[in-house]
User: Fold this.
Amino acid sequence: MIEENRERYINPYTDFGFKKLFGTEMNKDLLISFLNALFSNEEKEIEDVKYLNGENLGDGYGDRRSIFDVYCTASDGSQFIVEMQKAEQTYFKDRSVYYATTPIRQQAPKGKWDYHLENVYTIGILNFEFPNNEYAPDSYRHEIKLKDVEDHHVFYDKLTFIYLEMPKFNKTEDELETMFDKWMFVLRNLSRLLERPVALQDRVFKKLFEQAEIAKYSAAERRQYEASQKEYWDYNSTLETYLSKGETKEKLQIAQRMKAMGFDIKIIAEATQLSPEQIEKL
Assistant:
């Protein structure tokens, strides 16, 4: 059952929500299940993961518009960046490629090295669709590798980008067949559900719903979640306003509003394309 106005379970698109479900040692089995669902059609099975320091991917959370939570290495040596992207940004693809360079560079040991690299995966859970109808309306999972332009064979198979366009996933509970379907449904609808659907009776989802139930949180956790939820709402509201306007005067007004809300100057500059100096003067 889905309910639009009430909230029993946390919103996984918030910073707190995503970290709670996928970014803690206690819940790493949820992350492992999700990753294995992504590779259900391939000869790859992740048995365990070790969390790494995600702050290596930037100067800090305030320097990124997206919700970035998970940076880990799997038991087979593969490295994963898993990112919840709240909204489209101008250089989103550039940023994905830039982030992927960190786990590549960090594999280089000191001293002599033969340049052998482990697999690197960047996984983007997108709360938006790629612009300009880049992909078909019913295509929501995209796997990108380096390929030869002429014959399209994979030139390098150790660098993979997987993007999930969440707004395109519209399957109902009755249409869920695979574990991938089930994970997509949960991520798309969790905060609107009032109870665990019959189709999601797998053990991993039993734990997920237990971990996602707001009523079971301590007072401190609820305050953290509420702050994260407010930040999510404020950001979406401000972004919608920004996207509907384009003049410099209007950009300045939007920047002023974002600054008053407490947004970091780098985030404001990225959203409005104004210089940090212009924003500082507001």
Confidence is low (pLDDT under 50) at residues 57-67. The CA atoms of residues 174 and 199 lie 7 Å apart.
